[in-house]
Fold each of these.
Amino acid sequence: MELLTPGTGLIIWQAIIFIALFFLLSKLAWKPIVASLKEREESIQSALDAAEKAKIEMASLKSDNEKLLKEAREERDKILREAREAANRFHDEARAAAKKNADRIIEDAKAVIHTEKAASLRDVKAQVAMFSLNIAEKLIKKNLSDDKAQKELTDAFIKDLKLN
Amino acid sequence: MPPKSVNQWQIHAHNFPKTFFSETLIDSFAVQLKALVFFAMKKPFLTVKTAIFALLALLSFSAIQPAFASESDTTKAEGFDANKVIIHDVLDDHIWHFWDGHYGTLYLPVIVHSAERGLEVFSSHNFYDEHHNAVEYNGYKLEHSHITLNGQPVLDLSITKNVAMLLINATLLLVILLSVARAYKKNAGKAPKGIQSFFEPIIVFVRDEVVKPNIGHHYEKYLPYLLTLFFFILFGNLLGLLPGAGNLTGNIAVTLTLAVFTFLITNFSGNASYWGHIFWTPGVPLPLRPIILLVEVIGIFTKPISLTVRLFVAITAGHIVLLSLISLAFIFQSVAVGAVSSLIVLFISLIELLVAGIQAYVFTLFTALYIGMATKEHDHH
């Protein structure tokens, strides 16, 4: 039966010592231990949070960069396209101008050739007329015996002149 | 129960000295059965272990039984009384007996208070003569660990074996845990090392697995008590396993005191919802409410009783099993039996180490659970 009957003295000692132990440990052991554990956990948590935040910032920075890069690329493409168009336009315009110039030169040349030709013809006609007069003079001077032959000759000259 | 009736019980037990041994034997058997019943009720996952315990206890009981059947002529003639040895070991005592012989016993101080003589302090050596026979001292008489003054009970505040164990336990806890706390101050902001890294996981386990889930967000208020409780029981259990050590946490006075603290904390922190559930349980049909009230009021008291008995039984039963197995060698006076029982004792000792941790955990867990139940905010009804 003794095993199951709590001794009064031991109850009193147990109560006193346990209460004393509780207060001593609470103040001197559990308070600093629990506080340091909490502090460390919080510092670890805040470090993890900061890392997570930095990661998110990095990602946003990266996406910003990508956006900028994309915009720059688009800008470049636009400039190139415009430059190409401008070049083409200049090219076409230059070609058109050159063609126009060439045409004008050709026209001018043609006109010059035409007037030159007309002048030359005029000269030639005058020369021929001179020559004919000279020939006629010589013929008249030399041989005017045969009328018929003279007439034929004159006709032939005239015919030739008309052909020209 | 009031102290007076305790003494009456004890006196009642002393009136039957002849049946004392057989009574305690039956007690130890009953303790095993209670262990089984309590474990089965409270912790289903411990039932296998309890079953092994109960089986071994029964075996040891039946093994010792024949020896006691012929108590008067055999065991005493052989000079070995297993029952006496075992019960003596698990009980508290005014002397600390390590081994037989002149220097094998530590005589602890006796502190008694009586209305007649006031407070008196003397050595328990005074109760023994040179041949270790019990003698009266100055009118005081020590009989079965109880001191009487001229036949009247006195208030016994002696430093008994268990009080000495209690002081050793408290000192050890203070020395170790204060050095752990110092390490926290010294290594502030650094990784734990040394003794600090050994205790940190245990402290964090108690906080995160026992206290936090059961009590909730306001757990910090109760954490110092629960940590003290856990380490007190753990250290007490482990110290009790040392050879020659007193059975501190297997003493019902110790477990009762701890359970009463839990009882007081639980009921003093009980909120309106807790008392409301006890006295006027919501959601129960009106005619049933008085019956529920009765059940709930009984429930307030069964909680500390179950805490008291569970720890006491688990530790005492373990000690009885170990000592019974060791006693087999002396009862049979056989080397072979000794070898086999030593092997079993080794195995049971390993289980006892496990039990030391589990019981500390279970006591703390249930305390946290009861506090949690008393302080929980009910948002329904």
Amino acid sequence: MMGQTTWLQRNGRRIVVALPLIWLIVFFFLPLIEVAQTSFTMPRRGIPPFEPLWGFGKDGFFTNFNLENYALLLEYWQDYLGPAGNSIRLALFSTIICLVFAYPMAWWIARSDPRQRAMLLVLVMLPFWTSSLLRIYALIGLLNPNGFINTMLLFLGVIDAPLRMMQTDFSIYMGMLLTYLPLMILPLYATMIRLDDDLLDAAADLGAGRVAVFRTVVLPLTMPGIIAGSLLVFIPAVGEFVIPALLGGPDQMMIGKVLWTEFFRSRDWPVASALAVLLLIILAVPIIYARYQDGRTTALDQQYDEAQQNDIKPGAA
Amino acid sequence: MKFVKSKQIVVGLAASALATGLATVTASAEEVLNVYNWSDYIAEDTIANFEAETGIKVTYDMYDSNEVLEAKMLAGSSGYDVVVPTGDFLARGREAGAYQDLDLSRIANYANQDMGVQGFANQQIGIDNAGAVYMWGTTGVAYNVDMIAERLGDDAPTDSWALILDPKYASKLADCGVAILDAPTDVLPNVIAYQGGDGTSMNGKDFESAGDVLNAVRPHLRYVHSSQSINDIANGDICAAIMWSGDAFQAAYRAEEAENGHTIEYYIPKEGTNLWFDHFAIPADAKNLDNAYTFINYMLRGDVAAANVNYVWYASGNEAAKSDIDPEILEHPGIYPTAEAQKNLFVVPVYDARLDRTVTRVWSRFSSGS
């Protein structure tokens, strides 16, 4: 009994850390390795529809490693660059739109009566309890030529002919905003709620105007929330497949659709994998690098803070 | 007292454990079947009737594209016993080892099949027992009668692919909405036929030039999508679309039900169109093989096949069903094409990997506008 307790005590931390780590390795890292492996093989008619990358056959170890899929992507780069550009442009604007809407909303929630705050946060998250697919279909019902908005405007005599809202950039951005807004509001709220009002008063007392207070105090202090929220919106938005498929027209070919096409229609799992790996490198590496830089400055700040505290401590004691 | 009680509990537990054990045994002895079929592709009570009659418990799942079914089959261990792929997908899957050939002697009702249709379908695959045709249909044009008349008057070529594929007409319909199926092998061969070529062509160049035709009308298209047009054309949100026959009738039916003033009609273009066949097939690793055969045999029974046709409005692969099929369906030239229209129908061959790539590339360029 005693031994067990101490074993648990000794290893409890490790177990707590190991569980999510194992989960990440099994369900995130291994599939990623699988995708990377597949990107170096060739397609075939069979189950699975690609050759094994390596194995042991009659003549011992063999490998089918080759770079043809990447060569193919380079050869037809124009077919991929357009949709990739579309996706990044769309994700970028979606992020900006979400930020513009989320910032004042998060601020308002963070500054409102603490008793109302919980209610407001629940309202922000409420849509998450319904299927995102249903919300998109509800949006289609609003935006259609014969939908609610057009019928209303026609009835009120504001317009003579239905507005064309579906299958446009507008409808896609509406879908993105609807889906991703809470992911932007929550991290912003988390930083804003910690923002000390005294800092704002102090800045104002020292003669800073509203704009100056925002620019020099509020913005830098909420920057972690802006970055976190932007990443949470931007990254899934780049690979978004459902929203452009349901709300977009033929002009909005996204990289997610291209991946779908390579995987399902060409039955070319290796090329689809190569494209996914390439996208991962193009998108993830700069972000990881930026976070690494950010992490270094934070670490420096921390050292600086600690040094200051240490300086003060002797005096306080 | 307390002691007795706990003893009772132990006995009770043991008894219930035994009962659960027995239940497990009977559960594993219970006959089951896993079916994977297209959505909206069976009468509402067919599965319940089958279960009542055979005692086999059916798990019935649905998909809405051949590609999704194929990806599942190619990944292996799908767990399904009966699936319903379209001919070219069945042929390719068979080549990959995903399907087992049928033992026709185990399907007594196979004798009910319309051998003309079944023979046509077998030709596409290359062997006679890869699958049993469930339903078949065409790809054609659905249009909103009033909206087209309003914009094109008597000029409207409502017997030709030109209504959609000729910019002269498509441009005048752009404001009310034109859509094309997102299914390259159901569209590109028809564009080739529209150009006066052979719909069964396996020549990459024909596909390139079909792509040019599509790119020319692209500015006038609302979207390229496979299932969205059913609702949109029924609601008057689009006015003309390349669609599968049954989908077009579903749209026409929905518009009629809604009494929204829209009349939808479907025609098989005079330049010809492709026929497609959906087969009952058995995955190579099906676990409930006996039940799979029982199910296919049941589905090929005349009255069952007829009930399904009367519900989904596609043509049946079953000859015996005809006596029970709604005359309105049997006489509909859009469902059972006239002898005249039949002359121009063709079956798309199974493409090799190289042509597959060309087709995908032509299609991606068209649908992405690059």
